[in-house]
Amino acid sequence: MKDDGTTAERGPAGAFAAGTGAAAALIAGLPWAASGHLPARLATHWNGGHLSADGSMPLWAASLFPALIWLAAAGTVAVVLHCNGATRRWRTITLLPTAVLLCGAQASIIRANFDHTDWHAAQLPTGWLIATLATAVLTAAGAWLASTRRSHTP
Asked: What is the tens place of the pLDDT at every residue in 31-71?
């Protein structure tokens, strides 16, 4: 807060931190939002071509683990790009599709486990995973196109 009672602008670092925190909260919060319809353990792994789950995590771990992956990825990308002198647009091009991918993976896991009493009943959500991958690729392409248009504008 400034002396005159107004708030200071966050700037690029503040915006990056806010966006990273918001994405982490969304990734971690999705399973908790549906927890009333989920089993105590969530199916989180499917082996190869099998439609049945072969691995699970408790709800808290299924929420926390992907959020930690996100925070590690965001931190790594920020440090690597900063050390290489890359522009902020590379952060967007790299991290926005990553956030979409992790949110989509969480949504797919929730969908697979939704309204089941045991994680063994969860079937591989193939359609959801394909849609997630396609959305992440389109997001990456859109971020790339938007950043190149902006950089060429006088």
From this structure: 999 999 999 999 999 887 678 888 999 999 999 999 999 99
Give the type of residue at 84.
Answer: N
The whole model's pTM is what? 0.82
- Residue 121 in tokens: 């009943």
Q: CB within 8 A of 127, min separation 6: which ones?
A: none
* DSSP codes joined into one string, 90-116: HHHHHHHHHHHHHHHHHHHHHHHHTT-
Radius of gyration of the chain (CA): 19
Query: Do residues 100 and 139 touch, judged by C-beta distance below 8 A?
Result: yes
C-beta of residue 92 within 8 angstroms of C-beta of residue 142: no
CA distance 97 to 143: 8
